[in-house]
Amino acid sequence: MSVVDLMVQLRQGRIEIWAEGERLRLRAPEGALTPALKADLSAHKGELLAFLRQAGEETGGDLAPIAPAPREADLPLSFAQQRLWFLAQLDPDSPFYNVFTSVPLDGAVSARVLEEVFNELVRRHESLRTTFPLVEGGPVQLVHPAEERPLPVIDLRGLDEVAGLAAARRIVIGEHYRPFDLAVGPLLRTCLLRVTAERASLLFNTHHIISDGWSTDVLRREVTALYEAFAAGKPSPLAELPIQYADFAIWQRDWLQGEILERQIEYWRERLEGAPPVLNLPFDRPRPEVESFRGDKVYFQFAPEVSARLHRLGRRAGTTLFMTLLAAFSALLARYSGQNDVVVGTGLANRTRRELEDLVGFFVNTLALRTKLTAAASFRELLAEVRRGTLDGYAHQDVPFDMLVDEFKIERNLSYNPLCQVLMVVLNFESRQEAPAGPSALQQQAFGGGKGGTGTGTSKFDLTYYFVESDDRVACMMEYSSDLFDRSTAQRMGVHFQRLVAAVTAEPERSVFSVILLEASELQQVVGEWGRNERPYPRQATIPSLFAEVVRRRPRATALTFEGASLTYGELNRASNRLARQLIERGAGPETRVAVTLERSAQLVVAILAILKAGAAYVPLDLSYPRSRLSSMIAQTAPVLLLAALGQEERLPENSPPVLTLDHDPAPPGEEGDADPDDADPELEIGADNLAYIVFTSGSTGQPKGVAACHRGVVRLVRNTDYTDFGEDEVYSMLAPPSFDASTFELWAPLLNGGRMAIFPAHSPSLEELGEF
User: In 3D, which of 224, 188, 207, 294 has the Cα closest to residue 447?
Assistant: First the structure.
């Protein structure tokens, strides 16, 4: 184990370590120093002393305790508070940053003792009596004197049980969503809600600018200790705090500048260079222009054997539970988004100094952890990459997240968070054990938002995965934006993540991209139901045979309109038959090719129909292309003829085949019923597998490549389909150039279903022209 790994383990166990001369000094929560960890500390003592001395040099040797600061001048905000204050100004009436908890108690709890407890907490922690007024255009911290405050008590015991519970719910929701005024305060609100003789709840609400998740653990411990002492008539058992949050804010601004700041920012500048600004997950709805932060939660847990494999794999790979889960989570996001470069945020307590452990305040920082994935890499290799990135990130965690965003000049967007839109956190579970009901129930995990708490109904990110360990399992609370995801989608994501983790912990050598995430029922739905696209259609029909059916059924119906003129199906049929006979006389027939340089027009439709009626395939050529490209296309397709408009001959390449020039408008067809034999359909054997057309792609090598399509492909595209309605009353615009394959749909969707085609003139339309058309 490296010394950095050991430091990470100490930090995750909330163990403080520092050097005093040649001695290591430790402070740890009860039970955190396991025998194995003690052995590691003893084995690595020399390395740890050297590491801590080096850390002291890199921070300017400032390992002395943070000292109390004078209070004469206005007190600045910390970097974290400054960020949150700014965000709160954007929507001052929003309850989004309320940290609300409803803690269930039994009816024996004493309101008088609780009132004493909270008055002592407010006296003890300056943060709980701090507001943020504007002074000379900027916010400052204003610490108010400690004053006795009554604890509001709402007594619903006079109501029947049903009415009492309904009233309690209304009160809880109302208190939860009641905003704070940062300038006026107070930013701590408490209330004892008595529902029945046996049931009560403590409502506890703070603004995030004065507290964080670690702070709730501090308050839990102190409330429990104070309640038990005051209820027994004893004084406070808690030692006075040597510093307050404002002292930290002053120290932070004095320390995090100059060379220290630049060294940390330079690391992040290199680490995050070229990172994708947005993770494009498959949302159920489009991202709104402005985030509403509405959210919900779903829960899942890994099976005991999977949880055990997570720990075993971590021990063998030298990774913490957080690192192992982060590797799997990054893989899941890459699979969902199709992006192999993923940035995931994580919340850090950011209490890197031992003096900060017992303070109530807003210290938390967001760390942006970037992972690059490759399809060939195994999960074990991915773990190694995540381990390196996480350890390096921990070593440079002091830079406030918003300072990085500003430093990198990341464009702010009201519809999503900058840099990372997804968060993952592994919570410290030692402080979240259930306790019996009664005054000691204040120890419940509900105080930190657990089972007894009230959900926020919000989501600060697109997705946030919170992991905890409970007994022999790893469990997850997944918070998601309800603007973007349905609940069923969030639940399905949880199932997919469990499948992914189960697979890669069982076989770490396999690639994360080889794991099948879908359950059997989902596979059946995707492949068996959604993938079932067999539909009956005239498989043996050709384009001319289907067009002939429409002509017989609707000879007088309008087939196309162009520049104020129109052709009926009968007129279009007779005009194309006449031209088809000329083409046959000039060598056109089945499997031959005829090139076409005509632009969008009625004559173009007549010409293409005529080529197909002659049994040949049409090859559209765009005369705006360079001659060398046109020459290459002609050489590849070897057309027997080329149909051009008057005046186009001089623009053709030298290797062009014989040219047949056509008038811009079709020749006037004979009246229906005339006995002209040239109006009849040519009698040719054309099959569904005969070539119908060739269009050219740009070619990945720079050389255009021809794509050949048969009659059956065109028939399958526009007959008996379920993706849109094809009917005789539909009107279709023809806007694509004939050399673009979208013209296939625009030509044959109307003509093979009896609809009408409206042809836009050959030039590119403006928006106004398109709207008028």
Answer: 224
**pLDDT at site 701:** 67
What would the two tokens of residue 465 be? Answer: 């995965």
Cα gap 416→288, rounded to integer Å: 9
Question: Residue 287: which of 187, 116, 417 has the closest Cα?
Answer: 417
Is 105 in a helix, a strand, or coil? Answer: strand
Cβ proximity of 417 and 366 under 8 Å: no
Instruction: Kindly give the pairing relationship between strand 463-470 and strand 473-481.
Output: antiparallel
Query: Which tokens go with 450?
Result: 């657990």
Interatomic CA distance for residues 205 and 702, integer angstroms? 65
Q: Give the burial string for 162-171 (b: 16+ CB within 10 Å, else e).
A: eebeeebeeb
| Backbone region of residue 428 per phi and psi (left: phi > 0; alpha: psi in -120 to 50; beta: other values) | beta
Assess contact for 199 and 174: CB atoms under 8 A.
no
> Please, what is the end-to-end C-alpha distance for the chain in angstroms?
73
Are the CB atoms for 598 and 645 separated by under 8 Å?
yes
- Extract the tokens encoding 60: 């300017």
CA dist 755 and 728 (Å) reads: 4
- What is the rounded distance in angstroms from the CA atom of residue 164 to the CA atom of residue 182? 33
Q: Over 70: is that where the pLDDT of 414 sits?
A: yes
Q: What does the pLDDT look like over 731-762, one tens digit per residue?
A: 999 999 888 888 999 999 999 999 999 999 98
- The Cα 69–Cα 75 span in angstroms is 9
Name the DSSP letter for residue 416.
B
Cα 356–chain centre separation: 34
User: CA-to-CA distance for 713 and 722, rounded, in angstroms?
Assistant: 16
Q: What is the spatial distance between Cα 169 and Cα 199, in angstroms, rounded to a whole number?
A: 13
State yes or no: pLDDT of 427 exceeds 70. yes
DSSP string, 115-171: HHHHHHHHHH-GGGGEE--EETTEE-BEEPPP------EEE-TTS-HHHHHHHHHHH
List Cβ neighbours of 30 (8 Å cut-off, separation of 6 or more): none
Tokens read off for 196: 């029945």
Output the CA–CA distances (angstroms, integers) from residue 15 to 28, 41, 385, in the order listed: 4, 12, 26
Average pLDDT of 147-160? Answer: 91
Residue that the structure tokens 């990198």 belong to: 408
Beta strands in 454-609, from DSSP E residues, in sequence order: 463-470, 473-481, 558-562, 565-568, 593-596
- Sign of the torsion angle spanned by Cα atoms 427, 431, 434, 439: negative
Partners of 135 in beta bridges: 138
- Mean of the per-residue pLDDT values for the chain? 86
Q: Name the β-bridge partners of 678.
A: none
Cβ neighbours of residue 93 under 8 Å, at least 6 residues apart?
179
The amino acid occupying position 678 is: D
Tokens 């309640």 sit on residue: 227
- Rounded CA separation 723/444 (Å): 55
What whole-number distance in Å separates Cα of residue 478 and Cα of residue 368? Answer: 19
DSSP designation for 524: I
CB under 8 Å to 752, separation ≥6 — which residues?
543, 546, 547, 550, 714, 715, 718, 719
- pTM value? 0.65
Count of residues in the chain: 773
In the numeric block, which tokens belong to residue 701?
């090598």
Structure-token match 């519970």, residue found: 165
CB 570 within 8 A of CB 551: yes
CA-based nearest residue to 589, from 636, 545, 641, 634:
641
pLDDT higher than threshold 50 for residue 511: yes
Pairing assessment for the beta strands 365-372 and 153-155 based on DSSP bridges = unpaired
Q: Which residue type does 87 have? A: L
For 708, the token pair is: 């050949």
Which of the two residues, 64 and 18, has the higher pLDDT score?
18
| Residue 206 three-state SS | strand
SS3 call for 577:
helix
Q: Calculate mean pLDDT across residues 130-156.
A: 93
Residue keyed to tokens 């089945």: 590
